[in-house]
Design a protein that fits this description.
The chain is an alpha/beta fold and about 280 residues long. Helix content is about 40%, strand content about 15%. It has helices at about 30-40, 55-65, 85-100, 120-140, 150-160, 180-190, 210-215, 220-230, 245-250, 260-265; strands at about 5-10, 15, 20, 45-50, 75-80, 105-110, 145-150, 170, 190-195, 235. An 8-stranded parallel beta sheet has the order 3-4-5-6-7-8-9-10. It has a two-stranded antiparallel sheet with strand order 1-2. Helix 2 (about 55-65) links the parallel strand 4 and strand 5. Helix 7 packs across helix 8 (about 220-230). It is globular, with a radius of gyration of 18 Å. It starts with 6 loop residues before the first strand and ends in a 17-residue tail after the last helix. The protein binds adenosine-2'-5'-diphosphate. Adenosine-2'-5'-diphosphate binds near residues 22, 198, 199 and 245.
């Protein structure tokens, strides 16, 4: 990976820029729109949003107003929990596209495998949802389809009826929260891992080993953490609404962590919180 424009290749051949700009907790309106504009100006070409973030309109406005060729920007959104099911997925997708103001979506993800509302029949709900995803993909309305927060048992269930293997699994991945079983399972099935909260939602900055590494490499803790993510083969999705940090989080390509330092960071335990249990989320 040499720059923000370098790509991973998904199992269907679609290429995806190697760092995505995360917009979770970026407020709809001025804040999200300004942040996405700053990210595009800093060279990001991959923007990650979700219906549940409530900021698709702002993200779409910033993408459309950027003047950058649409084909150069990779846009991801996600299906909200209440919208699982075949018909409701088709309707939710249309709404997402209307809010984004785009003709095609680059990547659409099932946001959570086991919403509270579908807890008694999440397998059937995901199978029906995925059927709609496959049809939208085959109709050319989405360039790639995937999942988020899926653990091996959720993927196992999905693959029983899926005709198309998900291209992506977006999960929480940061030092101290490496979700080893899900990572191994996803890799075995050629599913690219995207890392949300790659800075542990801000908790990474207080970790002494990360501060030591930042001093050693002459980089910031954020840059060490994001570089670790890339060298792990993950696609990090750092979130910031601060333009200077947005630029800082993009400067990852002029240094490399040694294998020994990678191993030390990978060995961190419980330093930045853990992913929510997708079978227990209350939403
Ligand atoms: P802010 O958006 O106010 O700039 P994660 O990507 O793991 O969810 O982490 C996001 C959090 O980390 C946000 O609170 C964000 O703050 C903060 N953050 C992002 N980049 C940096 C950075 N380079 N330095 C310090 N804090 C950062």
């Amino acid at each position: 990976m040499k720059s923000l424009k370098s790509t991973f290749t998904l199992h269907n051949g679609v290429t995806i820029p190697c760092v995505g700009f995360g917009t979770w907790q970026a407020q709809d309106g001025e804040q999200a729109e300004t942040a996405v504009r700053a990210a595009l100006e800093a060279g990001y070409r991959h923007i990650d949003t979700a219906a549940a973030y409530g900021n698709e309109e702002s993200v779409g406005r910033a993408v459309r107003a950027s003047g950058i060729d649409r084909a150069e920007i990779f846009v991801t959104s996600k299906l909200r929990n209440p919208d699982h099911g075949y018909e409701s997925t088709l309707a939710a997708f249309d709404l997402t596209m209307r809010r984004l103001g785009l003709d095609t979506l680059d990547l659409y993800l099932i946001h959570w495998p086991n919403p509270a509302q579908f807890r008694d029949n999440w397998q059937e709900a995901n199978a029906a949802t995925w059927k709609a995803f496959e049809e939208l993909y085959e109709a050319g309305r989405i360039r790639a389809i995937g999942v988020s927060n899926f653990r091996p048992h959720h993927l196992d269930a999905l693959l029983k009826t899926a005709r198309i293997v998900p291209m992506v699994n977006q999960i929480r991945l940061c030092p101290g929260d490496t979700q080893d079983e899900t990572v191994a399972y996803s890799r075995k099935h050629n599913i690219l891992l995207e890392a949300y909260s790659p800075l542990g939602t801000g908790k990474i900055f207080g970790v002494p080993l990360m501060q030591e590494m930042a001093a050693k490499y002459g980089k910031t803790v954020a840059q060490i953490s994001l570089r670790w993510s890339l060298q792990m083969g993950f696609l990090p999705l750092p979130k910031s609404t601060t333009p200077s940090r947005i630029r800082e989080n993009a400067a990852l390509f002029d240094f490399e962590l040694s294998q020994a330092d990678m191993d030390r960071i990978t060995g961190l335990e419980d330093c930045c919180g853990k992913a929510s249990d997708p079978d227990k989320i209350p939403f």
